[in-house]
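Handout, section B. The chain below has 441 residues.
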Amino acid sequence: MKKIIDNLINRINCPIVILGAGAGGSHSAYRLASSHKKQICIFDRNNYIGGRAYDRDYNGNSPGAYDTTPITAQGSMRFYEVQSVMKQLAIPYTEYDYKTTIINARGKSYTSINEMCDEACDFLKDTYRFRSWFKNINAYAFMEYYDHDSKLNGPIYYPNQGMSQFPKRMMYNATTFYDARLYLNEEILSIDDIPNQNCYPFVIETTRYSIRAQQIIAAIDPLGWQSITGSIANDIKSNEHFQSILPIKTVTIQCYWPHRWWEESKIYGSDVDRIWTRQNCITIAEIFSQRPEQRFQNATRIVYDDGQCVEMWSALIARSSQEDLINEILRGLQSIFTDVSIQRPTKIFTKIWQGDWHFQTANSHITNRQIASWALNPLPRFNRNQLSLVGEAFYLNRAIWTEAAVKSSLISLTSQFNFKFNCFENDSTTSGGRFWPSDLI
């Protein structure tokens, strides 16, 4: 039996292996490709590029790089003018400023938090849209993160054809122009080291490949490591830095509608583009079709839930019929838009993100900065240029997670491959308005 299995496995040597084709892995491939070309192999368990930067068209497909098909976002959506690390990647975008936000709480609807006044904790829970902020998380690490997040301001940019164009275009350039090798639908099964092997010290097993590698960039989020075995995977998972990272589960639901019913509301007016509520399980909704370039789609992200009702939505999505899911969506919306008749959506797309972003566990005594530094050399038996961990989960002082993945990649490349990046100026989310990739080294 072993001989038969061995014959089904493709054995390859690859000097540089990137595990994961999300924002962090794609950025690493993009930066390395011009100098290392075919020496780079990228593996991802999904059949698409982008990870949590995930966009779908009306038919449910994830368009490729440079595609012009209209999409709606089921993962990351936007970045800000003040995020110079994202802007320098030069993806065409549309600027959009929110018009009217509805806050539905305590039986009333507000358009500004200034209209609300009550005890501090409940006030914050009612007026801020993310529920995971109020979970049992590490308060000190949260404030490290919030120091960055609170500096987001100014114009908001929506990339044409979605945030997934960042990783898709970077990977397209790496593979098309420089012949980096990309393998999709390849689940990582194990990562081991080979004792007394200096040339190719790593062996990686995927669904169809056995890979010997000299260097690894592991752009895998913490939940992605759970099913991976092997000496390296086990040692990383057992480390206290890794164990302090807390994945936040979210659910997103997109709806296409027969017409723009929200424009008919006399209570709120025709320019409502955001809603959040604790009155029902809609939690957060965004009306994509208020943006001029998406108006004709009649599309909304009608649910974004990161804690209040995430398990309820997960259970409804798992059912064989969407009937109960649709009824719960309509019930929640109708309780907010009481003066509008809301018809059934023409199409629904759902996505459960088991780890959409990350905080730290409440009992952790490690700082976010210490996690970021550890990720550059997570196993002391290897030197710094052999192995690093990349991704938002390992750069928790994020402003938005896509940017955090790119910043994590920049730091990794500076450490592991001795890249020389200039300071990224006018990056207001970091101290002093500058981001130096060498800051943690």
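Note. The radius of gyration is 22 Å. Compare this with the example in section A.
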